[in-house]
């Protein structure tokens, strides 16, 4: 392949979406504030680039699509909570998950929560978590490592966060 050439494969589908609740804290010059709990219809796209393999494609479309769907489905109609936030405390029991931030407190049914190992449930860090989870799944399934992976997460119409790795 000429060195100036690069192939990309991109997958985004109407069903590669999930509706979920979250809130983040925002560190302002006047002090840290906490958003009200709210939700988004998050849309996800994956893009892979690199050389062509022996089948003359960059990566298997179906494997990308199905693995992404399997990662997103458990997030749908859930409350997304960060476990690595420096000041949001998340304690999950068999029935209830309690969340505390300064004097505020929320309690959710545990089976309606997804605890993510991120500092904040921003679209950026959700994109990274999806990308790293996708990498782990594909490697476990015996696929070759994707040369260049890019995950895009749309939080609101026209507002995308993008994570990529070489
Ligand atoms: Zn939000």
Notes on the structure:
With 166 residues, the protein is α+β, with helices and mostly antiparallel strands. It has one domain (7-78, 113-165): 2-Layer Sandwich (Tetrahydropterin Synthase, Chain A). The protein contains 2 helices and 12 strands, in the order E-E-E-E-E-H-E-E-E-E-E-H-E-E. The strands form 3 sheets. Strands 1, 2, 5, 6, 10, 11 and 12 form a 7-stranded mixed β-sheet that branches. A 3-stranded antiparallel β-sheet has the order 7-8-9, with no helix packed on it. It is elongated. The site of zinc ion has 3 residues, from strand 5.
Give short descriptive properties of this protein.
166 residues; alpha+beta; Tetrahydropterin Synthase, Chain A; 7-stranded mixed β-sheet; 3-stranded antiparallel β-sheet; 2 helices; 12 strands; 18% helix; binds zinc ion
Shape: elongated
Output the radius of gyration. Answer: 18 Å
Give me the count of strands: 12
CATH fold topology = Tetrahydropterin Synthase, Chain A
Q: Give the uncertain stretches in residue-range form.
A: none
Q: Helix proportion of residues, in percent?
A: 10-25%
CATH superfamily: 6-pyruvoyl tetrahydropterin synthase/QueD
- Report the span from N to C terminus: 19 Å
Helix and strand element order: EEEEEHEEEEEHEE
Bound molecules: zinc ion
Report the total helices: 2
- Mean pLDDT equals 95
Please summarize the sheet with the most strands: 7 strands, mixed
CATH C-level category: Alpha Beta
Based on secondary structure, the structural category is alpha+beta
Estimated share of beta-strand residues: 35-45%
CATH architecture group name: 2-Layer Sandwich
Taken together, the total number of domains comes to 1
